[in-house]
Design goal:
By secondary structure, the chain is mainly beta. The chain has four helices and 16 strands. The longest helix has 16 residues. The N and C termini lie far apart (52 Å). The N terminus is likely disordered.
Length: 366
């Protein structure tokens, strides 16, 4: 069955893209991986008793400098990846994931750094009756991301090449439903790649871009929302709302610095405070404590064409109820529209290794 799925994906990719203009170039990559689940939380120690294995398939479009961003990033690839992972534990089951990815090249294109983000399907999530030991995955649908660093050689023989290196894969449901201890895996991988239409590869356009991409300070407003749950299993899923205002300064093509504030209105926290006051009277809570939080944050955005990869670190300045750490992290992906003023954003907010929410937002920059 697994072999049939892999073959089908390869055939679909080939049929869809081989009809494209011959000026385009595509690469197919397949690898096998083996490794360990990192024990980032002692609660999942009972689930780490094997070495995960799996298969990685990727179909990518190569770039040659037709757009400025392609030259700026040394002619990266972009495409889709599929990952099958056997966690070597019947409690955890197996994961099937689909990702959007970028491949970046360093050291005369001998080092390939791949970043991918997407969704995964778990075959055996938590169930209070049949699978109560799986506290890593509370839902079948998971968010997932991976980082891969490979030594790579392309087109060694008639378009065929190879790659080998290290890989990191993360799975989590972003606390949309408890439990959500999540898993992180460190893996080694090795495999082959094949360059389609390798006889007609374009030349790289290395013409220097002298444009000054620096900008004056801009103002941004963002509204984010979603739904999440506390770590109390069965406590219910509730919506949350995040209002953000910040300024940013674009330094060059790659980097934009940010400084601003967040207002968090998390209904799950309101419920959690009420639950804690009743279940643990020794906590001396009334149950009416304010569940809203206000923070200040600094951030950085990496620009890739009309996309942005953001990272922010924040500190709660209004924190009436102590929940998790006072410092939080946010990592996400942005896509700009309408003269690069309107944008959509998807991000993951966490307190170090503990995810709080997957946020879906829309914003305006002026």
């Amino acid at each position: 069955m697994k072999r049939n799925i892999s073959v089908l994906l390869i055939m679909i990719c080939y049929c869809c893209f081989s009809q494209e203009n011959n000026n385009n170039s595509y690469q197919l990559e397949g690898s096998y991986f083996y490794g360990n689940i990192y024990n980032h939380n002692s609660d999942i120690s009972h689930l780490i008793n094997g070495h995960p294995t799996g298969a990685f398939l990727s179909f990518n479009k190569k770039t040659f400098g037709l757009k400025d961003w392609e030259k700026k990033y040394n002619f990266p690839d972009w495409g889709l990846s599929f990952i099958y992972k056997d966690l070597k534990n019947e409690i955890l089951g197996e994961n099937y994931g689909l990702y959007v990815n970028y491949n970046f090249y360093l050291f005369k294109r001998n080092l390939q750094l791949t970043l991918g983000s997407g969704l995964a399907l778990n075959t055996n999530p938590y169930d209070q009756d049949s699978n109560y030991l799986n506290i890593a995955y509370g839902t079948s649908l998971l968010s997932s991301s991976f980082i891969k660093a490979n030594f790579i050689k392309n087109s060694i023989w008639k378009g065929l090449g190879f790659q080998t290196g290290l890989m990191f894969i993360h799975y989590s449901n972003g606390n949309t439903k408890a439990p959500n201890t999540s898993t992180n895996s460190f893996l080694i991988n090795a495999g082959l790649n094949y360059q389609l239409n390798y006889k007609n590869i374009n030349e790289y356009d290395r013409e220097q871009d002298l444009t000054n991409y620096g900008e004056k300070i801009k103002f941004n407003f963002v509204f984010r929302t979603g739904w999440n749950q506390s770590d109390v299993i069965g406590s219910g899923t509730y919506p949350f709302y995040v209002f953000s205002a910040f300024i940013d300064k674009k330094l060059n093509y790659y980097s934009t610095l940010q400084f601003g504030a967040d207002l968090f209105i998390s209904k799950f926290l309101e419920e959690f405070i009420s639950y804690t006051a009743i279940a643990y009277p020794e906590s001396n809570l009334s149950g009416d404590e304010d569940y809203k939080r206000v923070s200040l944050f600094v951030g950085h955005e990496l620009s890739i064409d009309k996309n942005g990869i953001l990272f922010q670190i924040g500190y709660y300045v209004y924190y009436p109820y102590e929940f998790e750490k006072r410092i939080y992290l946010r990592a996400g992906f942005k896509r700009y529209f309408y003269k690069n003023k309107l944008f959509a954003v998807v991000s993951l907010k966490s307190h170090w290794a503990q995810a709080e929410a997957v946020e879906f937002g829309i914003g305006y920059r002026f």
